[in-house]
Amino acid sequence: MSLPLHAQTGSVPEAAVLEGLPPVHAVSAAEVAARISGGPRLVVLDDDPTGTQTVADVPVLTSWTVDDLRWALRQDSAVFFVLTNTRSLSPEDAAARNREVVRALHAASAAEGTGYVLASRGDSTLRGHFPLETDVLAEELTELGAGAPDGVVLVPAYIEAGRLTVGSRHWMRTADGLLPVGESEFARDATFGYRSSSLHEWVEEKTGGRVPGDEVLRVTLDDLRGGGPAHTARLLSSLRGGRTAVVDAVCDDDLRVLALALAEAEENGTRLVYRVGPSFVRARAGQAARAPLTPAELRPLRGDAPHGLIAVGSHVALTTWQLDRLRERGGIAEYELDVALLLDEERRDAHIAEVAAAAAGALDSADAVIRTSRVLVTGADADDSLAISRRVSAALVQAVRQVSASRRPAFVLAKGGITSSDTATEGLRIRRAWARGTLLPGIVSLWEPVDGPAAGIPYIVFAGNVGGADALADALDLLRSA
């Protein structure tokens, strides 16, 4: 289907977008795993914790000391995640954090004698610090003597969540069909908003014209499916001077073709940095999609307490609908953190303590939900809005910490990207964990903390922008069944 690049299309039937595509070039996860065996480790700098939701049995770090990174490099895994949480930071702080991680990783890599390839994991709906983060990674690699990257490969697809790229245009699945992401609520984000749905135009927009759209290499489904890994590798090998490539993907096979092509291009000397959505990580690591964890698999992971704690910070409409369905299912005690009170320095701490005490008391008889008020409060500009989000998230995390200190929950589930990161690092003080799998197909990751006060408490990372209306209730039902 051909659509004008700037057309305001609204939702389009999925069949209309996907009709006439070339047949899939089938590649198994085992082929990728064999191809990358013994090669450099894929290190994913995750700008919020939700990037782990397509993989299983993968190490996760929330701290990036050289010792932490050496621990991760020693694990039997083709990939590991470093949770940077940079989507919640200012551009200056995000840049500084990326630099810290790369410098520590370079030292750890030298100590362990293990090579690495860097992936900057961003949002599949195109929010986050791009091109800042890939620019910083390229600068650091150059300064450290690892070589300036020849190219940046942009692959935002997230298959299970219906974030697909066709003809370089990025789409998101809705109840009414596929919607160009530039027309979605995510494109109106107060901090990371944008207009373009076509990735090459989006690159031009986000770089302020530094990278013209017509200079972006477009790797299409015709290349992946018709040309296969060898042809795609030749395209990627043509990248020079940090040029950007954008890649189509509709299914895991498309991403596995890309993974084989990347391995070949890099083996032949092409140096690349990736900016990706969650599905790429699974393909590049040689993992196949796995079914959600079963009650039997969850049982040894679940804590001994009768009920769990749910922290909800996400304000997107989907999260509000999911909360409504959870209420209908029952079995919860719900408590609200009023954002207006959280922004009042005189009343903030008392309000948090009151809510936390009530939620802790409820854990004997129900799963406790602590949520922020549903009215989104924004600031005068993008930086001010981000600062408000940080203050609200810090308050929610403080409440989680107070609940956990008085009552050990059976599990902790955090809803929202910033919320789940801050809850992991500040609320539960997780440093090292394993992402064990998901509660729903391809979404809602369960971490098993391996150290600190949260060891023995499964931690569930639930993005704000994924799943259907019943997803939160379904995830809670599965946890309860264990």
Task: Characterise this structure.
The protein has 482 residues and is α/β, with parallel strands linked by helices. It has 16 helices and 18 strands. The longest helix is centred in the C-terminal third of the chain and has 25 residues, at 382-406. The N and C termini lie far apart (46 Å).
Structure at a glance:
With about 475 residues, the chain is α/β, with parallel strands linked by helices.
Categorize the overall geometry.
Answer: globular
For the termini, the CA-CA separation is 46 Å
- Discrete helix count: 16
* Radius of gyration over all CA atoms, rounded: 22 Å
Task: Calculate the mean pLDDT score and round it.
Answer: 93
Structural class call reads alpha/beta
Strand content: 15-25%
User: Main β-sheet, in a few words?
Assistant: 15 strands, mixed
Strands, count: 18
Helix content: 25-40%
How are strands sequenced across the largest beta sheet? 9-10-5-11-4-1-3-2-16-17-18-15-12-14-13
- Which ranges are low-confidence, i.e. pLDDT below 50, for 5 or more consecutive residues? 1-7
Describe the SSE topology.
Blueprint: H1 14-18, H2 29-36, E1 41-46, E2 58-61, H3 66-74, E3 79-83, H4 91-112, E4 116-121, H5 132-143, E5 151-155, E6 163-166, E7 169-174, E8 177-180, H6 199-206, E9 217-219, H7 221-237, E10 243-247, H8 252-267, E11 272-276, H9 278-284, H10 295-298, E12 309-312, H11 317-329, E13 332-337, H12 339-342, H13 348-362, E14 367-372, H14 382-406, E15 412-415, H15 417-427, E16 432-440, E17 443-449, E18 459-462, H16 471-481
Parallel strand pairs: 1-3, 1-4, 2-3, 4-11, 5-10, 5-11, 9-10, 12-14, 12-15, 13-14, 15-18
Antiparallel strand pairs: 2-16, 6-7, 7-8, 16-17, 17-18
